[in-house]
Amino acid sequence: FLSLPILLLFAGLMPIKAQLSQPIDPKSFSLSGTMTLQDVPFVQMEPFDLVALQQEDLVLDSEPGNPFRFGHNIDVDLNMQNSGTLEIIKDSKLWRLGISSPGARTINLTFDQYNLPEGATLHVYTPDRQHIIGAFTHLNNQADGQFATTLVRGDAVILEYFEPHDADFPGEINLTTVTHGYRGVNDYALQ
Questions:
Q1: Run of H or E including 60
Q2: Most exposed: 14, 92, 126, 173, by fewest CB within 10 Å?
Q3: What is the SS3 assignment for 35?
Q4: pLDDT exceeds cutoff 70 at 86
């Protein structure tokens, strides 16, 4: 049984208070001369056996104490050195990477390296720009370097990292897990 705040959080109707974000738009939205969204390269996640997971869920959901599994974790190793596009604009860096997981109801991301200098921003948004989370900044830096996002609706997202020319150090971002959400809160409510 999940409490109403947890259900609202899971449904994406209530913000996560621990996930600090600043009211800053993605930099590419205001920069002229940047590549269009159609030019952003996408990495497509490997397919997995959804039917097998759904069969497991039938058993797991009926056993008391099991957490509600809403998605499948896909291990990746994606960063500014091995994926996406990096543009240098007036000595500032703009890195973008698309993630596609066909059929996903939601996508959320986990980073095992997240260390941003002051002034840098990270956003995650849908290609149609209808769902945007962030700006995540140096205020989200943790001693262990880990960071995770909340759910973004849909089966494709774009990561956008902006680093100003006067940053104290080069930012570090390494995406380690893409969670392909295949169930939502309504599925839990039907249990």
A1: helix 50-62
A2: 14
A3: coil
A4: yes
